[in-house]
Amino acid sequence: MQDIIRYSVDADGIATLTIDYPGKTMNVIDGDFMGSLSAGIDRVVADPAVKGAILTSAKDAFVAGADLLAMEANLDSMNNDPIDVLVEKCASLSQLVRRMETCGKPFAAAINGVAMGGGFELCLGCHYRVASDSPSLVLGLPEVQVGLLPAAGGTQRLIRLMGILGAMPYLMEGRHVSAAKAKEVGMIHAVVPATELLAAAKKWLLETPTAIQPWDVKGFKIPGGGPLDARVAPSFVVGNTLLQANTYNNLPAPLAIQSCLYEGAQLPIDKALRIESKYMASLTRGTVSRAMVRTLFVNKSKAEKGMHRPAGFAPFKCRKLGMIGAGMMGGGIALVAAQRGIQVVLIDRDQAAAERGKGHAEKVLKRLIEKGRSTQAKADAILALITPTTDYELLRDADMVVEAVFEDRAIKAEVTRRLDAVLPEHCVLATNTSALPISLLAQATQRPERFIGLHFFSPADRMPLVEVIRGQKTSDATLAQALDFIAQLKKTPIVVNDSRGFFTSRFIGAFVDDSIGMVAEGIAPALIENCARHVGMPVGPLAITDELSIELSVHAGEAQAREFPDTYKPGRSVPVLKQLFEQGRLGKKMGQGFYDYDATGKRLWKGLANLYPLRAHQPDPHDMRQRILYVQAVEAARAMEEGVLLAPADGDVGAILGVGFPAYTGGPFCFMDGIGIAAFVTEADRLADLFGEHLRAPQLLRDMAAKGETFYGHTARKMPA
Predict the structure, then answer these.
(1) Boundary-marking domain end, from 258, 285, 312
(2) Which of 31, 229, 313, 531 has the greatest CB tally within 10 Å of its CB?
(3) pTM over 0.90
């Protein structure tokens, strides 16, 4: 077993257990970690000279939570264990923490950095918790965000510290807090300067130690009342209603957490911890938690660590960014870059337009100050890095340029030629586009090997995803530099091969196009919108179209038809969109589209029924929900079949983070694996028979079904090199 936790005892009888996992940048919890902690607890208990112990970390962070690779390796075996075995596995860390807090000697957690998930549960098991005042330190239990619950006592200890009502937001939503906020709400006992952290923990152990947690004291009652208390009971009634309204029963973790709180709060701590372990086992057996862990934790982390970065290139750091186009997208990218300390030259066709782009950053920063999340001094420093101008000459020493002008090939070509005249040889030129092929746009440059696509999502200062599109001539060095730049911006990349629409645009396009096509079929618009919400889409497809603008959709289709006359195929939505456009219904910005908008809100336009009379017999809502999910998954499979996607992880991360595919599915490829490829093909074919050939499963899926292959796990198909 590795020496993960160093053990020492000072002259005053205080043991220090210092967590320092060898070969890892952050401390993580796995079997070896638990073995090392168990041995440390044994030494504390066995040594009569030891009065108490400090648990701390030698790394910048305390403990980040579960080990990524170990978790991935176990994802496919979760369903194979008998339920009693699975419960014991889920209870292993919980039992260890419980042994620590009942061993008879006091433990103090000296929290020097980030403590999340199981890392914070370790702290909760200590009798005293003191944190450093580091601004980067955050504490929390985010397990619900990946379909799980805090299973090392988090649900039970937090309610016994804060009360049920106080703990609910942190458990049900996975909120994290600063050290100061954690002390304010009762999660920890004290906050001190980093240099005084160990001394503060030791002082408590020497002066006021207790080896008994409050909940182990006879007569303990939960602060604020138990679940049957009149002050608390309504929160469970309302909570169930809100869960149904917000999740449509697609997410089992919030309900499991709520059940842990309700049941566990009525029991002694040991029985309550057993309840927690049983609910954790039920979650790990389901497809939702495995899918969410795989995509939102494993795949996302791999993407951010550069799983597609070509080897052999020195790390790149952008010092000066050229941002061409100062609209909302360009202004957002400029802000993000400046927030990371990058000097930004923000260029537009006239000075006023460039200044408006910087104005966007000013407005965002002002809102952050008003919310207490920044200061005027920080905002001023960020804004000082953004230079609005019309002068391309300022880019002669740029490290990176992102062009985000109007989605028109001729305009982009003109900008590219101007950039070619001034950019240094090492500079990468990236075009921000949602659909235009990169290899086509690269024809305007004299160095296509340094040209790449970076598809940012709006609003760029908030959306986490960047779709990286490699053109036919894009070099490995350029891809490596682009990925390093995205990492510098602290965003999540996916990498795809060049194709019209790439992955994300064609993926969400399949959903929107088919849904608008349903209107023409005589399917009730309200049924379309409601079924989309019920399967977990954040916004209905008709509302999405209004937001993006019907006018823009029509013009984009016309541009595609002009640009690609031999390959363009008008979607099922085109006749509907044109008809609304001709009636002056241009979308939300004009107050009328699929919806009518006024000061009181929005309502579906009643005139749609005159244009497209409703069927006498509407489709079954179950079939509608299936259609909405399957039309997207089938399109994802086609993108994989055509070689647009490099790996299923890119499709899953891109679908959820980029265009709002339901997170509980884990993305289209996790969704297909969870159903089973053969079963997916059967259902897709049934839907195709009902609604049209665009729902027919492609040959790739038929071949995989015949071979018993999946996209992930031990039976995963081999990806092309």
Answers:
(1) 285
(2) 531
(3) yes
Give me the catalytic one of 143, 276, 529, 551. 143
Structure tokens at 338: 């400046």
210 and 324 part of one domain: no
Asked if 521 is an active-site residue, the reply is: no
Domain that holds residue 324: 320-497
In a domain, 238, yes or no: yes
* Catalytic option among 121, 276, 403, 529: 121
CATH number, domain containing residue 469: 3.40.50.720
CA angle in degrees (0–180, nearest 5) for 632-636-642: 140
In a domain, 132, yes or no: yes
Distance, C-alpha 202 to centroid of its chain: 39
Q: How far is CA 185 from CA 190, 257, 471, in A?
A: 11, 20, 52
pLDDT tens column, 550-585? 988 888 888 787 877 777 788 899 999 999 999 999
What CA–CA distance (Å, rounded) separates 618 from 218? 62
Report residue 543 as tokens: 């509302």
Q: CB neighbours (10 Å) of residue 92?
A: 14
Burial label for 238, CB within 10 Å (0-12, 13-18, 19+), is exposed
The answer to whether 655 touches 294, Cβ cutoff 8 Å, is: no
pLDDT in tens, 695-704: 999 999 999 9
Are 233 and 166 contained in the same domain? yes
> Is 414 assigned a catalytic role?
no
DSSP collapsed to 3 states, 600-653: CEEEECCCHHHHCCCCCCCCCHHHHHHHHHHHHHHHHHHHHHCCCECCHHHHHH
Does residue 212 lie in a domain region? yes
* Domain assignment present for 697: no
